[in-house]
Specification:
Layout (H helix, E strand, L loop, with lengths): L1 H26 L1 H15 L15 H8 L1 H23 L2 H4 L2 H13 L2 H10 L3 H15 L5 H54 L6 H58 L2
Helix pairs in contact: 3-10, 4-9, 4-10, 6-7, 6-10, 7-8, 8-9, 8-10, 9-10
Length: about 270
């Protein structure tokens, strides 16, 4: 009888302990099956498909990490693109020293028709036209013109036009210098954000806060360089292009001044 009671108690205990184990196996069934499949694959030398963690960040995430400095860099990139398109359209011989305008001015000067030459300069505005207007103003404002004074006035106007041409390309150089400085400012702000919490309270420093600050530091530096490097390359190109246009403008101005001086020395 006692043996029967003991067997009944043991059976009851086994049933009570078996129910939680069955529930745990039911909850962990998919995971256990996955591990079993993986183990089976390893045992059978088959391919093991493990989940690959995704790394990196999207452009939107990088923009969010960079903060307000990203908007300033975006504005600088738009200004740089507009300058590049503008210089492509203006730094041409047809815009600086048009050969057709030079031929027309030389024809009118040789015929002595300065009024028509002046109107042609006013209609077709260009650096060459402004230099020619300086020569015509000198002849109109002086009774007895001297070639040396005429050349001095023309050279002064030519220097102003050359500085204006070089000044337009100088804007690209300014942008290429300012953009990395903005990136450096973002770097300093990001590092301050990252380690400011550590300096305040070591216990409250979280890896998420550190990662956000370091991300801002890296992102702003990268975007600052992405704006500065193309601007510097464009400046190097347009600087040489502007030098060639200034040389062509000097040659055209010299031909015009020579024609004016020889015409009115007679």
């Amino acid at each position: 009888m006692t043996r029967t009671i003991l067997l009944g108690v043991c059976a009851t205990l086994l049933m009570l302990t078996a129910r939680p184990c069955a529930r745990a196996q039911t909850a962990e069934g998919p995971a256990s099956g996955a591990f079993a499949d993986a183990a089976g694959s390893v045992g059978g030398l088959g391919p093991v498909l493990m989940p690959v963690p995704q790394s990196g960040m999207s452009i939107r995430d990088a923009w969010r990490c960079g903060g307000w400095i990203m908007w300033v860099l975006a504005g600088g990139s738009v200004i740089g693109l507009a300058l590049i398109l503008y210089l492509f359209g203006t730094l041409r011989t047809s815009q600086m020293a048009p050969p057709s305008l030079l031929s027309e001015l030389l024809m009118h000067v040789k015929s002595g028709d300065l009024a028509t030459a002046r109107r042609a300069c006013e209609v077709r505005s260009s650096p060459l036209a402004r230099i020619a207007l300086a020569a015509f103003d000198h002849l109109r404002n002086t009774t007895a013109s001297e070639p040396a004074l005429l050349r001095a006035d023309v050279e002064a106007e030519g220097v102003r036009q050359a500085e204006a041409i070089q000044g337009e390309t100088q804007l690209l150089l300014d942008l290429s210098v300012i953009a990395p400085m903005l990136g450096l400012l973002g770097t300093v702000m990001g590092m301050l954000k990252a380690f400011g919490s550590v300096a305040t309270d070591v216990a409250s420093a979280k890896p998420v806060v550190l990662a956000a600050g370091i991300s801002q530091a890296i992102v702003t530096t990268i975007f600052g360089l992405l704006v500065a490097i193309p601007a510097m390359v464009a400046y190097a190109y347009f600087r040489r292009r502007a030098s060639r246009q200034i040389a062509a403008l000097e040659a055209a101005s010299t031909a015009l001044v020579t024609a004016v001086a020889s015409r009115f020395e007679r």
